[in-house]
Each structure stands twice: as C-alpha cells, then as structure tokens.
Specification:
371 residues; alpha/beta; TIM Barrel; 12-stranded mixed sheet; binds guanosine-5'-triphosphate; binds iron/sulfur cluster; binds S-adenosylmethionine; 10 helices
Length: 371
C-alpha cells in the first residue's frame, strides 16, 4: 500500500513505523497531522456508549457496563471540543455516533448549539434508527445535515437474530420520517453475516434503490465485544459483489472517492443499460483504505482514538475539566494533536492486516469506540 505523501517541510518518517518516529512538528497550524503525512479533517464524536440494540457483530447479548454519567462528555464539553477542532485544528466535517446517539436526551440541543456556532459545518449522524421516527424533524430543525441508518435486513426474523431486539418496524418508520423531514442523502449501512442475512443483499439493494437511499455494505471487522470475528467467517467485498451480480450489474462510479471508506458502484438491472442508482462497499478488511484516512475519533468519555484499532487512547477529559481559559484550550488542542501525530499507519499497527498474525483486537467494541 502507498503511504500518503509527506508535506514539504516535514521530517522524513519511517514508512513502516507503528509508533512516532520523530517529534511532532509545528504548532496549531499543522492541525491533526500524523507521522505519515495524513491530516485528519473528519471528526467522529461518540455521544454515548449505550445502545438499545445488541448487534451480534458489535455488542454482547448482556450489554456492557455503561459509563457513569459523570464520565461522559457534557453538552458544553462537546461544543467546546468541536469548536477547538473546527476553529484551530482544521476539522471540516463532524459525525455524531455512538453507541446509539439517539438515546442521548440532549442530542437535539447539542446539534442546535453546534449549528449555531458553526453555520457551515457538515454535521451528520450515524444511528440504528430506533426512535428516529419521533425525532427526525427536530433533528432537521436543529441543523443536522444528513444521516446514515444501520439496517441489515428487511426480514423481521433475521433482524431479531442479528440485533437481538424486535425493532425493525421502528427502524423503517425512522427512515421514512428522516426522508419526510428532508434529511438527504440518506445512507443505509448493512453488515452481512453468513447464513443470517447474506441472502438478503440484493433485496435490500432493490428496496434502497426504489426509495432513493444509498445503501452501503460493510465488511465485518474484528470489533465485536464477544471477539467472535474470524477472517474465514466474514463476508468479503468480493463475495458481496458476487451476491449482487445475480440481479444487478455493478460498474465503478466515476466520481472521485475523496478519502471515503465506501467504494461506490453504479447499479443497473442485470443486462440492461438504465442507471438505477449507486451502492457502496466498505471493504475495511480486504481492500483497506488507511493510506487516505482523514479521521480523528473522540470517545464518549473524551478519549482520542487516532484509529479505530488504536491500542493507545489519549484522555482529554482531565484537561477539559481543569479550566476553560485560552491557556487550557491550548493544552487540550496540543494533546489532541500529539495523539493524532502517533496515529498508526493502518489497522492500529505498522501495516494493514486485520486478523493477521501480529494484529491485536482492541478491548473496546465498536459501540464503545464510536463507529
Ligand atoms: N476501517 C475503517 N472503517 C470505518 C471507519 N469509519 C467508518 N468505517 C466503517 O464505515 C461504516 C460506515 O460509517 P458511517 O458512520 O456510516 O459513515 P461513513 O461511511 O464513514 O461516511 P459517509 O459516507 O460520509 O456518510 C462504519 O460502520 C464502519 O464499519 C474508519 O475510520 N476505518
Ligand atoms: C457502532 S455503530 C454506532 C451508531 C449506531 N448505533 C448504528 O448502529 O448506526 C456505527 C456503525 O458501525 C457498524 N459496525 C458495528 N460493529 C461493526 C463491525 N464489527 N464491523 C463493521 N461494522 C460494524 C454498524 O453497522 C454501524 O453502521
Ligand atoms: S452497531 Fe450500533 S446499533 Fe448495533 S449494537 Fe453497535 S452501537 Fe448498537
Ligand atoms: S483502520 Fe484506522 S487508519 Fe485505517 S481507515 Fe480506519 S481509522 Fe483510518
């Protein structure tokens, strides 16, 4: 894999380093630069570790020990952190995630405050859609730009098996309400599990195309709290394309990928010329995109995770709670930059290779990181 070019004036870096090779250059003007020359401009902020589903590929059946309320970033701390990211460190887009962000009672207020401070900032949400029907309009009114809803199947039995909760109808109603509220584009995320919903892929795509939603299939990653993932068991991007080929012809979308995890394909009914829409495939395992990674993550308790698979976390909360002067802001920003400078090259190590010898799965599940 190619490493992104190192900007002029940067020290030369070991191309295969798992840890920092040189001291971080510059002050705030270098933004969230890492040792491989990538600059994070896409901030992903987890609002809570709690969730009302128990997806097999993420949460254990019994749930997890939720964070105590005083350990969570408050709305004010969130607004301050986003302000630091946008005003000083070059953040250009914000994703609110979790856990399930809709379970946070002050979600609408948080979005309204962020929108008021940052009128032009794209603010998106990733949600499981449970409870969305009653909140979609308020989210849109507060200034949410768009959202992604995770829904792996249209079948009640498979939904129950996958998520261990019988809430499919709520999710469907949520997607409809989001569309009615004018939140667009709506993206649908689906993880396929062998023998449960892999046979539903083409049907889910047809359903999404019919309604103008952009469906993305996601390769399952080793981020489940049960540590049950195996490289052999997961469904690969290649298999996904084969599953879809029974009904559809896929061809690469000519639009630039621009650092996005999803590779987009144009979709046509098999053997016909008319364009129906697009589908995305997020192939984090078999076709990694770490060389173009532009992401910085903050967990619900204020820890920077420079990579989804980071084994190192850098806690901003003590500094955030020390004070709110410019001097304190400088310290928080600088600590965030240090954390990002140490970002590993790929998959939390010096090379891509989820599940390879040498790969260590983080203790945190996807829900506790912020997907
Ligand atoms: N390997 C890897 N996978 C990621 C990363 N961010 C997101 N993903 C995967 O992509 C899936 C979809 O993420 P979303 O939060 O819906 O959004 P997105 O695809 O990143 O962004 P948009 O297309 O702009 O909406 C997640 O569920 C993850 O499985 C990342 O930084 N690294
Ligand atoms: C962690 S969830 C958080 C937001 C919300 N609860 C939801 O499900 O959309 C974000 C995304 O991560 C995805 N995800 C969770 N565990 C995953 C795994 N092990 N591999 C790949 N994607 C995963 C989910 O499908 C979802 O689209
Ligand atoms: S993927 Fe989202 S909805 Fe499913 S358990 Fe994880 S956090 Fe909850
Ligand atoms: S695995 Fe890490 S480096 Fe690779 S794309 Fe995801 S967050 Fe970025």
């Amino acid at each position: 894999m190619e490493t992104a070019p190192v900007p002029l004036g940067m020290p030369e870096l070991r191309p295969d380093a798992a840890g920092p090779a040189a001291p971080r250059p510059g002050g705030h003007e270098t933004g969230l630069l890492d040792q491989f020359g990538r600059v994070a401009t896409d901030m992903r902020l987890s609002l809570t570790d709690k969730c009302n589903l128990r997806c097999q590929y993420c949460m254990p059946e019994a749930g997890l020990d939720w964070l105590k309320k005083d350990k969570l970033l408050t709305a004010e701390e969130i607004v301050r952190l986003v302000g630091l990211g946008v005003d000083r460190l070059g953040v250009r887009e914000l994703r609110l995630t979790g856990g399930e962000p809709l379970v946070r009672a002050d979600l609408v207020d948080i979005i309204a405050a962020l929108r008021s401070n940052h009128p032009e900032l794209p603010i998106s949400l990733t949600t499981n859609g449970v409870g969305l029907a009653g909140k979609a309009q308020a989210l849109a009114n507060a200034g949410l730009t768009r959202l992604n809803v995770s829904m792996d199947t249209l079948h009640h039995d498979a939904f129950l098996q996958l998520t261990r909760r019988p809430f499919l109808d709520q999710v469907l109603a949520g997607i409809e309400a989001a569309s009615a509220a004018g939140l667009a584009p709506i993206k649908i995320n689906a993880v396929l599990l062998r023998g449960i919903n892999d046979g539903h892929a083409a049907e889910l795509l047809q359903w999404s195309l019919d309604r103008g939603y952009e469906l993305r299939f996601i390769e399952q990653m080793p981020l489940d709290a049960d540590h049950g993932w195996t490289r052999e068991g997961m469904i690969t991007a290649e298999e996904i394309r084969a599953l879809l080929s029974t009904n559809f012809d896929l061809s690469p979308d000519p639009r630039a990928r621009d650092g996005a995890p999803a590779e987009r394909f144009e979709v046509r009914a098999a053997g016909t010329p008319g364009l129906l829409g697009t589908v995305g495939i997020i192939a984090s395992v078999t076709e990694p995109f770490c060389a173009d990674c532009r992401r910085t993550r903050i967990t619900a308790e204020g820890k920077v995770m420079s990579c989804l698979f980071s084994l190192t976390e850098v806690d901003l909360l003590p500094l955030l709670r020390t004070g709110s002067s410019t001097h304190d802001d400088d310290a928080v920003a600088s600590r965030w930059q240090d954390a990002m400078w140490a970002k590993p090259k790929a998959h939390g190590m010096g090379r891509p290779g989820l599940g390879d010898a040498g790969f260590v799965q983080p203790d945190r599940s996807m829900s506790a990181i912020g997907g």
